[in-house]
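#onboarding

Welcome to the new folks! Below is a worked example of what a typical request in this channel looks like: someone posts a single protein sequence, and someone else replies with the predicted structure as tokens. Don't worry about understanding the tokens yet, we'll cover that in week two.

Example request:
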Amino acid sequence: MAVLLQQIINGLSLGSIYALIALGYTMVYGIIQLINFAHGDIMMAGAYIAFFVVVYLKLNIWWAFLISMIGSALLGVLIERVAYKPLRNATRLAPLITAIGMSLFLENGGLMVLGTDIRSYPGGLITNAQLPLVIFGMRLTATTLQLLILAITIVMMIILQYIVHYTRAGKAMRAVSYDADAARLMGINVDNTISLTFALGSAFAAVAGILLGLYYNTIQPLMGIMPGLKAFVAAVIGGIGLIPGAMVGGFALGIFETMVSGYWSSNLRDPIVFLLLILILLVKPAGLLGKNNTEKV
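Example response:
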């Protein structure tokens, strides 16, 4: 039981990062039904922005979070305006191919500009001490970084829920996701609303990229590929297009991964994750929190 609880603690910290990335996927899909495969690479860009802020500008990690979120948000809006907006009325396949192309462009552009070297954040940015925990009389351990990752994720999710449900921009986002044409007739600027969605999702990806870089103590230009794909799996598991679904899917996937690594083999972690995606699509295509909607034609 102690080993099980310890793996759950480890899984929550990893799942928190997946949940933050999955939120960007699910927000964009909820608005324009597009899987933005460049989202993981925006996360990579956010991690590098933070690295340059702390290494060259000599600012602390909290300034790095803020500047990285702003920079990634601007990058997300730029990608949306250049790559996706001109295809707004195209067939569903065209934006999907463009998203894959944009992902490859960012990855290879990152390799050309940043090089292939693996870099690490400077030590001492965040205290990472071992903290003893006692749960049901069992002694467990968690690091301050793990608790910080979980706390930041929860705070970010609360902020997003507030924006979506209690602000004018959030109401516009919900209206556009429900019916973009009707929202436009009601005076909502659909293009600006979509850009705002990309900005928010990209800012969340930047936070995830920094946390991932701190968690594994490495960043490199291709770091967004696998976490981005796994976050997409998390969004599908929870119910793509649903913000609570992204949260549930991220936490569930993180715990599932640590269980596979702890009780079986870390080499089988990635194949089993994608096998889980196939099973979910076969058994419950709408995800754990999603509902199958019947459409009349």
